[in-house]
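Bug: token stream looks shifted between consecutive jobs. Job 1:
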Amino acid sequence: MKIESNSAEETFALGKQCGEKAAAGQVYCLYGDLGVGKTVFTKGFAAGLGIKEPVSSPTFTILQVYDEGRLPFYHFDVYRISDPEEMYEIGFEEYIEGEGVCFIEWANLIEELLPPQYTEIHIDKDLSKGFDYRLITVEEVQR
């Protein structure tokens, strides 16, 4: 599925729609360059889960856990991971197999640890279509 967004509000709304449909045990892998709107999408997703507390990128902590929504929300940012084995130190398996929803930014860095089924979300800019334009691609992956 490909969706065009022309504003941060539209990107947030799409994230919210995805969060409203999310089910326990699902894993989402979020890809995009710095500044494309990954955090905006993630905030919308969290809102769709009913999370009201502020959501931020866990860049320096690797993991943020939000428990107040209809499902626990595990937000990973693995950009700073130097070795996929580091994920085991934070209990990655427990989260990935847990009752919540996992959101993993920069998942390509830990690809060998991903489950056989997950959802990929790519957010891409196209400046020829405007500064705020984003193409958001959502696809199911089975390995």
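Job 2, same session, no restart:
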Amino acid sequence: MMLLYRIYQLCIALPILLVCTMLTAIVTIIGSWIGNAHFWGYYPGKIWSIIICRVLFIPVVVCGHENVDKKTSYVFVANHQGAFDIFLIYGFLGRNFKWMMKKSLRKIFLVGKACESARHIFVDKSGPKKIQETYAKAREILKEGTSLVVFPEGARSFTGHMGVFKKGAFQLADELQLPVVPVTINGSFDILPRTKGFGFVRRSKLTLTIHHPILPKGKGPENIKETMEEAYQAVMAGLPPERQGFIKNEDQ
């Protein structure tokens, strides 16, 4: 069965996914240029992500949609197991949002331009001024009533376990007094681990668990630290026992 699945990926799924990716990028760029990047920056990507999971026969389970209010802006923070985290969140979180992503992703053909057109936020760490500009753009978008999705580990896991959280997303939430929603992703590492690059995928169930929001309890460094720790423990608790516990990743 594994051999047949790989043949299917190479001969059928890959051409479909490449075409879908290019069409999604082009529609996003043109739609955002015409107007309403809030709409065109989300729905084409959502449909693209669902198609990818369906074409590859990846089963998806989502828990916790009832924990968030559709009219409230949130900062969603999720663990980063693998490349399929993107499709899981984009396709199944059920919220219009902007990504906070690495600046290097801007260089990906068509996809980078689409993300820029959609007003997703590229994190530029080349200097203090650039970092401040990144956060200023994030503050502007959040004030418009849009939610933000961040991988606070900063990079995909090498082991499937969680790394340390960086505090940038929590500082934004603290400054604007927005709720932080921990999100646990499970199964993505089994489908396509970082150590295998972008080779054949393994069919495995993807699970997205949306936890209860962590409401602001105050403002300042202590609140940031407390919220970050509470979010970390919530995300960790949603993982199966074999993925729990801290293991330092190679890039941390």
